[in-house]
Amino acid sequence: MASQEEDNKLECISNVNKEQERYFLNVYKNKVESLVDVWKSVGELNLSHFDIRHVIQIMDWAKLHALNIVLTAEWNAFKATHQARLLQEIEKAQNELLKLNSGFATRCKKLADVVKKSMGRYKIEFFCVETAYVISVRLKKLCESQCEDLALNLVTAFMNCNKMSKTQNFSLNATETQMWFIFDIFIALLYKFQEKQKIVVLLKELTFEEGLQLVKRFAKKRVKISKIWKNCHRVAVLATQMYISQAVVKYTDDLKEVLKSYIEVYISLCNTENLLQDFTTSIRRISNLADAAGLYVFCDVIEKKAGTILKPFCNRNVHQSFNN
């Protein structure tokens, strides 16, 4: 039977949780009110006095913060009291922006549509209407809210629709850069849920050059920017190992430069003693698949980029290549 002291502790914890919840909702309410004020200020500015590049930057900033507010579950609690005013200020801003450039009309309309209905529609229709930019923000907010499983469902549906769009008569509202960004999120989420086999299948569908660009993107991603990229380094290593193995098996002189690039990236990823040890183990395993020409490329790049650290490995394998 619980003691009085334990009961008091539970009550104390409960009160702390309630206080934290109240604090969060108060902060969120302040953010919503500030967002409305921002759009009100945009509508009151004489935008013709500004460089259009600066106006675009202001619009992108205001749009991003609007999406960060309305694409959270908490928005439902404030929607009734703030939606109408927010939409009114967005419409006023739109009218002012139209005097500057008609292209702003679409941006404001799409944002207003999301404010009115943050989720809905049949899947294909949803992805055809919704911009990839908004999809990426949705994914980001889901991951920040520790709803990665829902994020994976959303991005999987998006990628399936993208595949369907190539054989059926519809197109998604996305640029090539946005498509690659969402593809990266897809890979990152699959890795989080240990779906490595699915990752390998997807990576094999890319060309060597596309794979190289993917590896470079993951090598540069930063966890501080978004939790989505928590395993970005591991994904980069996994992809690099796979593409090097493929290049070795299919090796021709045409693949020499791309193979060099992959090995150079792989070396740059191995920035600790343990990773360097893993690198030598991995490369030694992969080198068993290579013929003399492919193995020579391995050793040449490794000797130039990390010769001092990995000299024993290079010397041993160079001798093996000439003995073959």
Sum this structure up briefly.
The protein is mainly alpha-helical and 324 residues long.
Shape: elongated
User: Ranges with pLDDT <50 over ≥5 residues?
Assistant: 7-18
Number of E-type strands? 0
Radius of gyration: 26 Å
**Count of alpha and pi helical runs:** 14
The string of secondary-structure elements, in order, is HHHHHHHHHHHHHH
Helical content stands at: over 70%
Number of domains: 2
Largest sheet: none
Q: Can you describe what's shown?
A:
The chain has 324 residues and is mainly α. It folds into 2 domains: 7-118; 206-324. 79% of the residues lie in helices and 0% in strands. The protein contains 14 helices and no strands. The chain has helices at 4-44, 52-70, 75-100, 104-116, 123-129, 132-144, 148-165, 176-192, 196-204, 208-220, 232-249, 256-269, 273-287, 292-323. It is elongated, with a radius of gyration of 26 Å. It starts with a helix and ends with a helix.
Features:
single chain; 324 residues; mainly alpha; 2 domains; 14 helices; elongated
Task: Give me the secondary-structure topology.
Blueprint: H1 4-44, H2 52-70, H3 75-100, H4 104-116, H5 123-129, H6 132-144, H7 148-165, H8 176-192, H9 196-204, H10 208-220, H11 232-249, H12 256-269, H13 273-287, H14 292-323
